[in-house]
Write a structure and sequence with these properties.
Helix content is 41%, strand content 16%. The strands form 2 sheets. It has a two-stranded antiparallel ribbon. The protein has a two-stranded antiparallel sheet with strand order 3-4. β3 and β4 form a beta hairpin. α1 packs parallel to α4. The protein starts with 11 loop residues before the first helix and ends in a 33-residue tail after the last strand. 8% of the residues are buried.
Length: 167
């Protein structure tokens, strides 16, 4: 193989996985390893175990975030302890904290998981009696100017209107 020897080391697999679990992007990985992003892409091609480490880290991180978003969207409860000091004594009271569903998290979840049903963009079209889309229905016509045409002094473009049309 011609060219400069690689700086890749097998120990980078574990480092890349850990960084990806923390949410690192490819650009951030390249920066961490002090290489160009193109070199990182070459390493992913040349070293399958490196690529697998990156995939594993990103998949685990994404799964954890998805789980937390789901819990936030649907509401959740967890055990906790209330700690107070009364008359010089520390009093610990076990309790359960409840978090109601979060509307914004639910909307975000649905817009990403069920795009066709929950997206903001609404597409309109023409359908026949059976609900089938009708394509290429376009009617073009030109409205006559009936003498309403405005000509501008000095042949100015419409962007440079002076407010004075010629008569």
């Amino acid at each position: 193989m011609a060219g400069r020897p690689t700086d890749y080391q097998e120990s980078y697999n574990e480092q890349a996985e850990k960084l990806c679990k923390l949410g690192a992007t490819d650009a951030e990985l390249a920066d961490f390893f002090d290489i160009a992003e193109s070199t990182l892409n070459n390493w992913k091609s040349e070293y399958p175990e490196f690529m697998e480490s990156i995939k594993k880290g990103k998949t685990l991180a994404d799964a954890e975030v998805a789980d937390k978003l789901y819990k936030r969207a649907t509401g959740y409860s967890h055990e906790d302890v209330d700690i107070k000091c009364f008359d010089g004594q520390i009093i610990e009271t076990p309790l359960i904290k409840h978090y109601p569903p979060d509307t914004a998290a639910a909307i975000f979840w649905l817009k990403n998981r069920q795009r066709k049903k929950w997206r903001d963009k609404i597409e309109t079209g023409i359908t026949d009696g059976d609900g089938n889309d009708i394509h290429n229905v376009v009617t073009l016509f030109q409205i006559p100017d009936n003498g309403r045409r405005i000509e501008y002094k000095d042949n100015q473009a419409a962007g440079g209107l002076s407010g004075e049309g010629s008569k």
